[in-house]
Amino acid sequence: MADADVIPIGSGGRPGRGSGRRTTPSAAARALVGQNKKKSRSAGDEPADPSAGGRAGAPRGSASAGDDGLGVVPDVEGPELPPFDFGGLERAVRQLFGEDGERRVAEWLAFLRRRLTGEYELDEFGYDSDLTDQVLLPMLRPMVEKWFRVEVRGIENIPSDGSALIVANHSGTMPLDGLVTQVVVADHTGRPLRTLAADLVFQTPFVGELSRKGGATLANNDDAERLLRQGNLVGVWPEGFKGLGKPFAERYKLQRFGRGGFVSAAMRTGVPIVPCSIVGAEEIYPLVGNIASLARLLGVPYIPITPFFPLLGPLGLIPLPSKWLIEFGEPIRTDDFADGAADDPMLVFNVTDQVRETIQQTLYTLLMQRRSVFF
Amino acid sequence: MVTGVSRDAGARCARRLADDPSIGTVLGVDVVPPRAELGRVRFVRADIRNPVIAKVIAAEDVDTVVHTGVVATPGSAGGRSSMKEINVIGTMQLLAACQKAPGVAKLVVKSSTTVYGAGARDPAMFTEEMAPRAIHHHGLSKDAVEVEGYVRGFARRRPDVCVSTLRMANWIGPKTDSPITRYFAMPVVPTVFGFDARLQFLHEDDGVEAIHHATVNDLAGTFNLAGDGVLSLSQAIRRLGRPTLRVPSFTASSTAAAVRRARLADFSPDQISFLTYGRGVDTTRMRTEFGFEPKYSTAEAFDDFRRSLGTGAMTRVSSLLTAGLGALRG
């Protein structure tokens, strides 16, 4: 094969990496050289090779342990060599990804090892920051950046420290707006957005498990106040299924904002409310019908009919690539209300309406500015 | 007086109390003689389901009653009906006897966090005031709710008695033999497909210490006791290095039945829902009012338990990965 000649890239065929970073070649590098020189060397040199490979185990171990402590290196000397061709692995990795890629792959392996041994931390809500940052958010990022091409405005309205309650409109048949907002907030502020989700989410296998690990918890006042007291950014979509499952004809008309529980939670903790308007999510799955009887049978709020969904089967599950605009509005302060304001229903309703009106007006403004649904 | 001393937890609590020189006499009560060495504890063979217990309390002039006699598994009690009898009727008789005894000044009840149930609609953390969202009609969960109901009734009728109810998370540790420790000791651990429960543990030493703490101090009220932090079920099993068998939720009860028949672990339906949805309790009051600081966090308690089990099959894979890392770091 022609590929075999290209293997010693960067080292010019000499032992070591050729980067000038190290003076002693690693065992893997020696093994590599040994294999390649087989062709040119005379047969008399061959017996010296195995012992060289065996001795090289010791310097490698000591060098990498002092490197940056990514992992504890086991004793792989002499006959107890691992039953796996790590030299080949390293070669392949360097060939595929280059020097920087090697570090990335090492980080990935370290992550994988943490996952396998369970050496990671969960918070009391089951939020797994390790998994979220390494897997869940990177998986969603292409959808946010390439598919929906999300444009974010007013990110400076989210406080850089301390807690805030982000209240947004809910739409799009499937709660993709929640996931997109989560990615957007994490990428622009560097802080995780903890979302409040419906109980149906936690009854559903996999969805519930992943939501908890991604930072969601059940939407109720106890959990919301607990998250806010601990200084988190909390995202809530108070329209719930009413907003998510409304017909396409009613797009961008806000539904009732629950019972205003999010306002009383913010008032009790004295946390600012950041209104967030999301444009574009309505068009991802245009809901034109609902199989109500099947939905009742399955115990879900609705079974959607979109122009593509039951018709094209699984292909219909691909969201339409609408262009999204997300605008975070001016924070509404709740810390200057008197004590016990959270127990005043009239005041809570008023603030709820204020938040709702703000989002509705911003939605109209954004819709006016939008040139087309898809661009 | 300590009830339920023939079982491990009760025996250890009684021993711990007997080791304290400030406590005069420790009386251990149970139906069968304890297998464990009780030391300074005086064993009285009596059945708490029987009015005879009132005579024991009167004759021995008992001033403090520590009730650890709630049985968690039907297997160890000889069937579900017998378990219910011990838990509910036993508690009723015991409390009736205490109510008639003017000398009794303190009651400590070892309850469990199963009173909160487990379900998809649960808040992330239960505080002591919260009512359970998912009511169970089975097993220990139901018994614990009923026992606590009787204890509250007793506290109302005898306001002069200091009643502490300790809702403890699952005990774990090298010496604990419970459904949960047996579950983790299985070579292949079955879990419910698509769910990952949040678990909290209390180390057995902390549990015993907490009972002692409640006995020597006057701390009336209901307290959640658990180690800090949570572990998810999958994480716990990974830490053990054991392979997981994920079974769909509708086969969970038949799997539990098979496991029970194989005498590997003893599962009741409330434990299955616990291992599906998990449960977290808020321990703020344990620190502020109860004034107790567990020595082990949830993860440390689990690690201590893990050391008693030995390594599993998955550990091999992770050591391979470590070796791979070493090669990459060069």
Automatic annotation (TrEMBL), chain A:
Pfam families: Acyltransferase. CDD domains: LPLAT_MGAT-like. InterPro entries: Plipid/glycerol_acylTrfase. Residues 1-83 are annotated as: Disordered. One of its GO terms (molecular function) is acyltransferase activity. Residues 49-67 have a biased composition (Low complexity). It comes from the Bacteria. This is Acyltransferase family protein. The lineage of its organism: Bacteria, Bacillati, Actinomycetota, Actinomycetes, Propionibacteriales.
Automatic annotation (TrEMBL), chain B:
Residues 1-224 form the NAD-dependent epimerase/dehydratase domain. InterPro entries: Epimerase_deHydtase, Lipid_A_modif_metabolic_enz, NAD(P)-bd_dom_sf. It holds the Pfam family Epimerase. SUPFAM superfamilies: NAD(P)-binding Rossmann-fold domains (SSF51735). It comes from Kribbella sindirgiensis. This is NAD-dependent epimerase/dehydratase family protein.
